[in-house]
Amino acid sequence: MKKPKLFNKHSNKMTKHLRNIFGTLVVTTLLFTSCDKKESIDNDCDGNCNPATAESFNNLREKALDKLTQNFQFDAEDTNVVFTSQKGVKISINTSCLTLNGEPVTGPVDLEYVEIFEKGNMLATNKPTMGLKPNGDKALLLTGGEFFVEATQNGTALETTCSFQMEIPADLTGGVDPEMILWDGIIDDDGNLVWDEQERDAANGKGGVFGEGNQYFGFFQSFGWTNVDRFYNDSREKTTILVGVPTGYNNANSAVYISYDGEETGLAQLDTYDETTGLFSEHYGQIPIGLECHIIFATEENNNWKYAIKAVTIVENDIITFTEAETELATEAQLATLINGLP
Question: How much is the pTM?
């Protein structure tokens, strides 16, 4: 098969920071070993490639999310229940606080749970870490974990009148960061997620998160998507960037993400698309000039991931372009390995 490859817009630079040299070597190794003969996917369509439909692209994301979904069941009369996730997160729920249409719940309850710590899973499920700033702009967040928790009975979503607690191993994201706070996930009509800072009640300790030892302790006020995060900080001057994608692709059947070199716990997304120019945009002006990063184009083809990755050093008003010839195909597992291995 034609081996996957990275495309470096600035290959004429003769020096790199030692960390980035090492990271690039790791990614290159992954790229050339991720597709063995048994799992190889032919991307040579002899010029007859058809762009993905919005439905097929969304289905690919839904499959990725389904694979990460963990299911538990308990009896509402057990009062206090504790579950331990695959990653070692402990979820403690006071069942006496569960309500259905305002009435206390009795009988069996189903719990649906998702945990995301790695960039590869963020990309595959379309759950990047973009937080709302006070002025409405969006900027990169660094995460201590993204979580979805939902309790249902006979398929109907329940509510809780008190907080439920989660104990999150901090070593999953590099150790305790005292600046972490809680964020609520908001999903728009197009299925895109943005994070909004959760209001905290300091008087009774609700709505907060704190680190102790090597754990985060979070007190979640409602079911749904919640994130332990803080904004990425960089004092360099900022700029906007534009990204062009292959013909036939737009924000309905593809996506563009940014992986910041040196930051393993966050994934940015270019969330706007201009139908006139055919360009994705980070129009908030939040990208640091001089930032070393990897721009990722992702879409679907034949129930697999179609992608391209470019190593870029951001310049003012940068424009990055992907072509069809630069794309490769990969399984979800192969793509996640590539994304998680970026420097």
Answer: 0.86
